Each structure stands twice: as structure tokens, then as C-alpha cells.
Amino acid sequence: MAVFSTGPRSGERYGSRGPRRSVLVALLLACATLITLDYHGGTDSPVEPARRAMGEVFGPVESAAAAAVRPVTAVPDWFRSRSDMRHEIATLTAENSDLRQQVNTSGVDRNRLAEYDDLTSAAKTLGQALVPARVIGIGASQTFSRTVTIDAGSKAGIAPDQTVVNADGLVGRVLRVTSTTATVLLVIDAESVVGGRIGDSMQLGFLHGRGDLGRSGRLDLELVDDSVVPSKGEVVVTWGSQGGAPYVTGVPVGRVTQVFSSLRQTSQRAVIQPFVDFGALDVVGVVVPSGTRSDRAVVEADGRLQ
Amino acid sequence: MSSLKWAVTVALVSLALVLQVSFFPHLAVHGVVPDLCLLVVVAAALVRGPEQAAVLGFVAGVLLDLAPPADHVAGRWALALVVVGYVAGRVRPDGTDTRPTATAVMTTVAASSFVGTSVYAITGLLLQDPVVSVADLLPVVLIAVVWDVLLTPLLMPGLMRVLTALEPGRA
Question: At residue A169, does pLDDT exceed 90?
Fold first, then answer.
């Protein structure tokens, strides 16, 4: 039996003599149209509503799949050798003695804490509350871009162009949201640009993602002032955008690992190793204005849950 | 029958997409995951021929282009998978009812994977979306081919059996 004569659209007239070219041409034209529409549309491209609709459908499915997979991916953690555990005991003992020492010097720390308190209240007025979320989908390297899906969307109070952080530092920014998910552009993506400030010298610059594929990822720092030479090990934090969108100010990004000076371009280029391990992203926080209404507990700037 | 056939096929593609996004990143090599959607399109090409496979390739590609966390210019995967569906379908041996040999399936998958990922990468280069060098493209394409060939013996027989069973007159 000829397969071609069975399809709903194929071969009724042509039998099994081969496919109709017109279908192929129509499909190729449709692809070209789609690419053109999206390429020239920019942020308000006509494809954007379709993306949103698709996200509404696939978001919950990805969420469920990620939740189902999580116990399986945790399996390697169960198998720990005796030497691992011995190592862990040694670490914990060391930590314990450290903590004991800290308790003995708590007076100094209390003063320091008072200073931190001031900072916290400053943070409170900045309104850096966090909506916690988990990563449920990761873009493949084949797409040559670094994006992830998180399981919090507009219902959780998230909007495009908000900063995404985790416990270690800057993760990226929200590109678009659906009601239950959001797509995050990681700072290591080749199209990501973040204003950065070197912590020690307060020098400003721009952090470009290098688009490294795979688990690792690095950033290039280009300083505004060519005469400044960043030194190895200096910490870079975000410079911050107007109104805190897309990046709030003062989030640690990474550390300078290499410095290149090119005679030809008379500029300094530094390579930044981000604090965040982009290969093991899981729990992240989205910076939202204080008092945002959300479908989940929001971590307020002072550490309270609301 | 034929609407059921298409519904099941699209469901297969969606399942492939969700696995590709939510499960395989945990096993990814250098961030590269197997192209499960491409495997479904190739299986359809081997069972149903180039025309239907090209249509399915378009559907699968649009899903890949629009479902989160995709952020590239929409239509790029659609174009790549239309080409894959058509080319893989033409490779299919002509005596329609003969099942393709294991070697033929392996070769088709390897070639399709290479063509698919390359077409996607080349449109990216042309559109500058995102800006990646050719030196970065090549290893990714090769790892993707190895992944797809490795998964072929595990997935393709089942996929082809399901798709064959959906053909009217055979079920």
C-alpha cells in the first residue's frame, strides 16, 4: 500500500509518484514569513502574543515535568562514599570551631550588625523584595542562546524587565511572562549587556555575555574609562538602571579573572567569572517592588515573609 | 481517523518538546540535549513520506520556536525541521511497504540531525541572532548528532511502530 495515498492532504491526485512541491514551497514561505515578522517586529512583534499563548499552555506542563523529574535527578546525591562523609564530618567540625570563635567575638559583630541594619533599611526603601521561583526549563545549547523558564509568572507579581538573582548573585532579567511562568535571559547570553561597577575603584563598565555554551559561562567587562586597569580578583556589582529596570543596583555579578589590554584598541578588557553557577541553577528570586501582590510568599527586604 | 492521527502525532511532538526542555538538560553534554522533536519528524518521514513529514516538521518547529524558554527569532526551527522532514522523507526507500533497515535509519537520523542543527545555526548566523562564531557552532552540531544517533536504537523503533499503527488501513 502506498503511504502517499493515505494522507489527508497528499497524493490524491498524484498517487505515490512523489510529493507535491507546492506543499513544500508553501511551508518554506510560511517559515520565511514567520522569520521576517519576528525579526523586524522587535519587542512588539506580532509573534509575541503567540509566544505568550504557547507559554500559557506549555508552562504548567513544563512545571509538572520538572517536578516529576526532580526526585530522579537527585538520585546521584544518595550515593555517597564513606570518604565523602568523613570529609563532611571534618568540614562540619571545622565550621563548628569557627562558629564557637564567632560567639566569643560577638560584641564586635553586634556593632557590625547595627551597620548592616542601616543597610537593610536602605534596602527596604529601595524596595528590593524577592519572589522565590524554581527553574523548570533550560534552553538547549543547540539554540545558541542562554535562557531558562521559571515557575512564577504574572500571577506571582512578575513583570518583564525585572532582575533575577539567586543566593550567589545576578542571574539575569525577565524577558516575558505568562500567568504561571516567566522566561529569563541569563547574563551569560551573547545578547545580554549589564552595566557593571568595579567594587573597589567604583569604575563603571559594561558586562557582555560571551555566549559560552555548556555549563560554564563568562562575561566580558569593558570599562568606560580606558585608562583604568582592573586587577585580578576585584568584585563587579551591577551599576543599576533607571527605576531599577531591568537591573537593580548593587547586585554582585562576579570576579575579575583575567585582564587583557589590547594596544590596537587602546582599551582594557577583563574577563569576569560569575558568582552564580549557571550549570546548577535551581532556586532563584525575582526582584519585585515591595508590597507586590503575589500568589506565593514574598521575601521582603528585611527577610520577613509576606 | 486522520484527525486522530494528527492529534496523536502532535501530542508526541509536545511530549518530546517537554522532555527536551525539562528533563534532558540534567543529562546535557556541554549544554547540548538530544533533538527529540527532530527524531519524531524523522520517524514520521520514514513512515509517511516527505510531504506529511514536512508539515509535521513545520508544526514541531513552530512549537520549538514559541514554547518557553525559546527566545530566538521565531521560524528558525520551523525552517530547519521542514527541510529535515522533506529530505529524510526523500531518503526513504521507494518500495513503500518495505521497512527501512537499521543502518538506513541510523544514517538518516545522523544526516537529518546534522542538516537540522546546521540549518538552524546558519539562519542564526545570517540574522545575527545571537552572534556566535562558526568555531562555537561546530562542536555543538557534532555533539547533537552523536546524541541523536545514540538515542535512535532506543526511541526510533517505538516511534515508527506508533506512527505506522496510526496509518489508516494498517491499524
Answer: no
| Other CB atoms within 10 A of residue A204 CB | 14
Amino acid making up residue A15: G
Q: Kindly state whether residues A119 and A139 are assigned to the same domain.
A: no
**CATH code assigned to B2-166:** 1.10.1760.20
- Give me the pLDDT at residue B124, please: 86
Residue bearing cell 526582584: A287
**Cα dihedral sign, A234-A235-A236-A238:** negative
Question: Cα separation of A174 and A176, whole Å?
Answer: 6
Residue A198: alpha-carbon gap to chain centroid: 21
Distance from CA of A7 to the nearest CA of B (A): 7
User: Do A170 and A199 lie in a common domain?
Assistant: yes
Whether the predicted pLDDT of B22 surpasses 80: yes
In this predicted complex, what is the ipTM?
0.83
Question: Is the pLDDT reported for residue A12 higher than 50?
Answer: no
Q: Best of B24, B73, B113, B132 to disrupt the A interface by mutation (most A CBs within 10 Å)?
A: B73
